[in-house]
Amino acid sequence: MKDQILLVQNDALAAIAAAPDARSLEEARVSVLGKKGSLTVLSAGMKDVPPAEKGEIGQLLNSARTAITAALDAKQADLQEIADRAALVGIDPTLPARALPAGAVHPLTLLRERAVGILRRMGFALADGPEIEDEFHCFDALNTPADHPARNAKDTFYFDSGKLLRTHTSSVQIRMMEKCAPPLRITAPGTAYRRDEIDSTHLSAFHQLEGLYVDTDVSLPDLKGTLEAFLREMFGADTAVRFRPHFFPFTEPSFEIDVKLEVKGQAPRWIEVAGCGMVDPAVFEAVCQSRKDRAYDPEKVTGFAFGMGLERLAMIQWGIRDIRLLIENDVRFLRQFA
C-alpha cells in the first residue's frame, strides 16, 4: 500500500503541474481527492491495514494529501496570475483614472441633523418610535375625538389589522411618556404618512420634527422662548417670529408659528413653519391610565409640545419652490447641496 500511495501522489503532482487551465486543474483535484478519487479510495482501505502498520500508512496518506493540496493551491495561484495578466493586455495602467463625482448628504438629512443638533444643545434628547402605529398612540392618547377628520380612511393609511401608518411623530411623545417618568425633554424626528394629493406643497410621505418638554413648572414663556431661539438659530438671529392662536386636540392653548421670509426681489411674507402649545391635561390623563400610575398627574406636571415639517423648513431655508424636488433624486438639483 505504501507504493500505491507514493504512485498516486506522484501521478497527482504531475497532473497538477501539467494542468493548462482551471478546468483541467479541477479535474485533477477530483480524480485524486474527490469522493471516488484515487487517494480517497486508498484512505478507505485503512480498515484492512494490519494494526501494526496503521500508524505508518496513515502518516503517508496525510503527507500525500498535504502535498497534493499545497500543489493545487500553488497551481491555482499561478493560473490566476496568468489570467490577470491576460486581462490587462491592451490596457495602459499609466493613464489617469476617470474622475468620479463626489456624493453629498441629502438636503433633508442636512436640515434634520442641524435641527436636532440645535435642540440637543438646548437639552432635548433624541427619541424614536414605530412608523406602524395603533389608534391609541396616534389618536386616542392625543385627545383626538373619534369623528376627527384625521381618523378617516380618506386621510390616513390603515391596514386590515386596524393598525395604521402614523400621521405624525407625536405618537413618539406618548410612547416616551409611557416609558419614562418626568422630567422629560425629547425631540423625535421621523417620517409621517397622510393621504394627501402630491403637488408642489404636499407629499403623502414626509418628515416631521417633534419636541416635548414635561416637568413640574413648564410654562408658556418656556415654549415661546425655546422656539424663538430654535428658529433664530436655524434661519438667522434677525428672523422675525410670530405666534398665532390655533386649535390642536392635544394642546391647550395652541399656536401656529410663522417666520417672515425675506427674499431678494420679493416683498417680505409670513410663512407658517410649526404648530405648538401646552400639553392638554387630557393627554396626561391618558398616559397615566396607560402607565397605571400618576407620574403624569396634570395637577402636578405641565409641558409643551411642538411639531414642524422638515420639507417646509428646507423650502424656506433654500428657497425651494416645489416640494417634489426633494423626492425626485434629480442630480442636477441635489448637486447644489454637495
Highest-level CATH class of the largest domain: Alpha Beta
Q: Name the average pLDDT.
A: 89
Number of helices: 11
Strand order of the biggest β-sheet? 1-4-5-9-8-7-6
Shape: elongated
Q: What is the string of SSEs from the N terminus onward?
A: HHHHHEEHEHEEHEEEHEHH
In terms of DSSP E residues, the strand content is 15-25%
How far do the termini sit from each other?
Answer: 73 Å
Number of strands: 9
| Sheet of most strands | 7 strands, mixed
Shape-level CATH architecture of the largest domain: 2-Layer Sandwich
Number of domains: 2
Structural class: alpha+beta
Question: Runs with pLDDT <50, length 5+?
Answer: none
Q: What share of the residues lie within helices?
A: 40-55%
- At the fourth level of CATH, the homologous superfamily of the largest domain is Bira Bifunctional Protein, Domain 2
CATH topology (fold) name of the largest domain = BirA Bifunctional Protein, domain 2
Radius of gyration: 35 Å
Write the layout of secondary structure elements.
Blueprint: H1 2-18, H2 22-33, H3 38-44, H4 51-87, H5 107-121, E1 125-126, E2 132-133, H6 135-138, E3 164-165, H7 170-179, E4 184-193, E5 205-215, H8 220-235, E6 241-248, E7 251-261, E8 269-279, H9 281-291, E9 302-309, H10 310-318, H11 331-334
Parallel strand pairs: 1-4
Antiparallel strand pairs: 2-3, 4-5, 5-9, 6-7, 7-8, 8-9
Give an account of the 3D structure.
With 338 residues, the chain is an alpha+beta fold. The chain has two domains: 2-87; 107-337, 2-Layer Sandwich (BirA Bifunctional Protein, domain 2). Helices cover 42% and strands 19% of the residues. The protein has eleven helices and nine strands. A seven-stranded mixed sheet has the order 1-4-5-9-8-7-6, sandwiched between helices. It has a two-stranded antiparallel ribbon with strand order 2-3. Strand 7 (251-261) and strand 8 form a beta hairpin. Helix 1 runs antiparallel to helix 2 and helix 7 packs across helix 9. The protein is elongated. The protein starts with a helix and ends with a helix. The model has no long low-confidence stretch (mean pLDDT 89).
